[in-house]
Specification:
This protein is an alpha/beta fold and about 270 residues long. The chain contains 6 helices and 13 strands. The relative contact order is 0.17. The structure holds flavin-adenine dinucleotide (FAD).
């Protein structure tokens, strides 16, 4: 079993403030953390390795300080960590990010062998788009299970997984062939404390570097110039006013409601 987990280092959202003059986020002095959903993705992958054997690899695309997030994953039990870092990626939107991570993952498959399970968080707490995981899965042309809340069954001989995901209306359980891609919810598992040997091994494990020197990259798909998303304006939405609470008997409530609605209904007629 080989699991590959995509992990992002994000600014601690609880400490990010908005500069109302420029409409941008004030990131200076804000500590960087491992995106919370990824902790659960790594936890799940490590639990699966403990049950079935195999290995867990993690990859992050970001600046050199993203190694901190990768070290945290190693101390949670991941076996190997890769940092994908290159100036060519600066300004990438989700389309360009998922392309770069896809190429990084292909390189890892070349170096570490085929992957059975791909994991990502359901979304990053800074960008919040939830597009990166699906973007990578689409490029690999493999099944995608978003909002994973339970891995019900795994069979690596017959190459399938049975997994339960959250939907708008409840839950659904799917059987998917492997390899497959999963984006995970926090409720998937409870984080456990890593045993001391894992912490020692993590401290001794070197983080491998990937860049345009060792990953095949089409520069026409990387960086700001090749990112179709344009951020035109960032602002805090106005606070919505509190609703009015109507009181009285049922008849009074019907009267009051029709009085409020009538002007709107007349306009439509
Ligand atoms: C025009 C534009 C320019 C941008 N410029 C920059 C920039 O210069 N520098 C910058 O850091 N960001 C930049 N961003 C933000 C960056 O594109 C997104 O943060 C990134 O694409 C991930 O999207 P997201 O944060 O919405 O993550 P989501 O799609 O919500 O993330 C879902 C999951 O995908 C995985 N994932 C996401 N990103 C990564 C990653 N980098 N490495 C590994 N796994 C990951 C994680 O598992 C995560 O939980 C820019 C965005 C736009 C729109």
């Amino acid at each position: 079993m080989h699991a590959l987990v995509f992990v992002k280092q994000v600014p601690d959202a609880s400490q990010v403030r908005v500069n109302y003059e420029t409409g941008t986020l004030i990131r200076e002095g804000v500590p960087a953390i491992l995106n919370p959903f990824e902790a659960h993705a790594v936890e799940e992958a490590v639990r699966i390795r403990e049950k079935f054997g195999g290995k867990v690899t993690v990859i992050s695309m970001g600046p050199p300080q993203a190694t901190e997030a990768l070290k945290e994953c190693l101390s949670m039990g991941a076996d190997k960590a890769y940092l994908l870092s290159d100036r060519a990626f600066a300004g990438s939107d989700t389309l360009a990010t998922s392309y770069a991570l896809y190429e990084g993952a292909r390189k890892i498959i070349e170096l570490e062998g085929p992957v059975d399970l791909f994991f990502a968080g359901k979304q990053a707490i800074d960008g919040d788009t939830a597009q990166t995981g699906p973007g990578i899965a689409t490029r690999f042309e493999i099944p995608l299970v978003t909002y994973l809340i339970k891995m019900d069954e795994l069979n690596f001989e017959k190459k399938y997984a049975v997994a339960t995901r959250l939907t708008e209306f409840g839950q659904e359980t799917l059987k998917v062939p492997l390899p497959a891609f999963f984006t995970v919810e926090e409720s998937l598992n409870e984080l456990s404390h890593a045993p001391l040997p894992w912490l020692i091994r993590a401290a001794q494990t070197k983080i491998e570097r990937l860049s345009s020197e060792n990953v095949t990259l089409d520069r026409e798909q990387c960086g700001l110039r090749h990112s179709p998303t344009k951020v035109k304006k960032a602002f805090t939405p106005e606070k919505r006013q509190r609703g009015e609470t109507l009181t009285g008997s049922v008849v009074e409530l019907i009267d009051k409601t029709s009085e409020i609605l009538m002007p709107f209904l007349k306009k439509d007629l």
